[in-house]
Amino acid sequence: MDPIRVLVVDDSVVVRKIVTDVLSSDPAIEVVGTAVNGKLALTKLDTLKPDLVTMDIEMPEMNGIEAVRAIRARRNRVPIVMFSTLTERGASATLDALSSGANDYVTKPANVGSVAQSMESVREQLIPKIKALTGRPLGLGAAAARPAAAPVVARPPAPRSAPHKAPAVLVIGSSTGGPEALAKVLPALPATLPVPVLLVQHMPPVFTRQFAQRLDRLSALRVVEAVDGSPLQPGTVHLAPGDHHLTVRGTGRGATTMLSQGPPESFCRPAVDPLFRSAVTAYDGAVLAVVLTGMGSDGRNGASVIRDAGGTVVVQDQATSVVWGMPGAVASAGLADEVLPLDRVAEAITRHLARALPPQPAHLALATGALR
């Protein structure tokens, strides 16, 4: 198996050295070149033919966002991973880069600590994303003499162990490629959506606040970064804040959001599985779940709980996913009622919600009925 060819673009000598050394330490990766700005990177693309590009944002002559736009204008689909800072400005620029065609991002190490700590931070974030975006199994070196991983195959949905229920809530999970997928799905949903929406996108703090604001501007729905204890109302989307799990709490007055900093699940916080499980409990299984593009398998276990309780699960297909990890894990486990291209997901949501229940937890519905 040939190594993954990477072009590193950054105007900082120190960062180029750190990234190059980290990537070169993995036998599955070869750094085939470096560039100090986007303009030079463009000149090297045709000659080096990299499998992936790492791109800084702030650079002289041509910055990272301009470079991404120029690369995509050439109809070049090489995966691009941005290097961002954990700041308001960095988050805004990264979201601009993603909307311009970048595939994913990693955060730069803070300007503290040792070079060894910076290298470890880059190694943990960047290498898994490089392998996921280029279709290389994790842990597989370039010279490893073993067959390629078997393709992920969607299985027909398994029979439910509970009657199928009309949804009273919509829950969505996404990761790599999710920002752009969500920017297509949510604006296609009507403002009159009859149920509340809860959303987990794997993102750090600062990023989620700005992302919620962008989605709110794009959508007829109201999109907010979730806060603890907010009542769940139809037509409002609650986005999990970075570093917090978002779950649903059933109360005597209706369902509300709940935030926590419990242990990461699937190496993530926020994670999709806690949200899916809690929605089943709060709404007695009357849940519509959507799993969009993303690496890993977060959401698979929660999808199993949803289907066992009578809920419905829709996932994005492989052809339109940046990485078919999360949706692929659900589909290959036989937990997806529908596997759809991205441009059909909003229609499926609207179709399933056409028979939606009143947006309240089951125990509250029972209590209300008892008072009549």
Automatic annotation (TrEMBL):
Coiled coil: none annotated. It is found in: Cytoplasm. GO terms for biological process: chemotaxis. Gene3D superfamilies: 3.40.50.2300, Methylesterase CheB, C-terminal domain. Residues 5-123 form the Response regulatory domain. The active site is at residues 175, 202, 298. It catalyses: [protein]-L-glutamate 5-O-methyl ester + H2O = L-glutamyl-[protein] + methanol + H(+); L-glutaminyl-[protein] + H2O = L-glutamyl-[protein] + NH4(+). InterPro entries: CheB-like, CheB_C, CheY-like_superfamily, Sig_transdc_resp-reg_Me-estase, Sig_transdc_resp-reg_receiver. PROSITE patterns: CHEB (PS50122), RESPONSE_REGULATORY (PS50110). One of its GO terms (cellular component) is cytoplasm. Residues 163-356 form the CheB-type methylesterase domain. Phosphorylated by CheA. Phosphorylation of the N-terminal regulatory domain activates the methylesterase activity. The modification 4-aspartylphosphate is found at residue 56. Keywords: Chemotaxis, Cytoplasm, Hydrolase, Phosphoprotein. Contains a C-terminal catalytic domain, and an N-terminal region which modulates catalytic activity. Involved in chemotaxis. Part of a chemotaxis signal transduction system that modulates chemotaxis in response to various stimuli. Catalyzes the demethylation of specific methylglutamate residues introduced into the chemoreceptors (methyl-accepting chemotaxis proteins or MCP) by CheR. Also mediates the irreversible deamidation of specific glutamine residues to glutamic acid. Belongs to the CheB family. This is Protein-glutamate methylesterase/protein-glutamine glutaminase. The lineage of its organism: Bacteria, Bacillati, Actinomycetota, Actinomycetes, Geodermatophilales. The gene is cheB.
